[in-house]
Amino acid sequence: xxxxxxxxxxxxxxxxxxxxxxxxxxxxxxxxxxxxxxxxxxxxxxxxxxxxxxxxxxxxxxxxxxxxxxxxxxxxxxxxxxxxxxxxxxxxxxxxxxxxxxxxxxxxxxxxxxxxxxxxxxxxxxxxxxxxxxxxxxxxxxxxxxxxxxxxxxxxxxxxxxxxxxxxxxxxxxxxxxxxxxxxxxxxxxxxxxxxxxxxxxxxxxxxxxxxxxxxxxxxxxxxxxxxxxxxxxxxxxxxxxxxxxxxxxxxxxxxxxxxxxxxxxxxxxxxxxxxxxxxxxxxxxxxxxxxxxxxx
Length: 297
Prior knowledge:
alpha+beta, five-stranded mixed sheet, three-stranded antiparallel sheet, 14% strand, transmembrane helix
């Protein structure tokens, strides 16, 4: 009888799944009528199959939370990448392409009441006017620069309207046109204060200085990270701090390329800061994804 029970118990799992032949089923059912041990074995198997899945168990909750976090991070990562591409594209379309001087690009018209008006040709999309006080402390010197952009070429913007320089009857001693190719400023009106040597308006260099500062901070954080790895503490904080100067360097490259000279330094700097934020987010999440992947290995 013992041998028969062992044989029956070997095929009870098949019987429980209803995948035995009719002859085997009859044999098993005949045996089960008189064998309590095999009845208990079958009952145990059937009870295991009927155990409901607890979808509210702590283990499943943790899995669901982790899957949600991973999905949320992936969505944020995609949004940040889209922002980076969008800001880079908008900057390319709208960044000033400064125009060199030509006789018909800018003309000065003096009215009877000493008012001075600037007229621009159709190529000019926008302009910048700066003024400074002359040495006599009473008169002003004006500097005018103009530019085009890819966006204005694509959309055929309306011509720039004429500009009245001295609506309050300021005394203007000189007006210069500033070209962004490091050539001499062109006198448009008044007295030439530059003399025989000429005068050149140079681009701003501060963006390059900020990049050098970011490179120094990157090197400093790398040294601190090396020390932290040796001490086995503080690595996580230093890694995230390291991403800050790296983000600024990448942002500068996205906006300015390799040339950090700028005639519109304020605009470029603010755009660099704007795009550096999503770049930092992408680097932050990339580091987080890498650390998770490393743990799974």
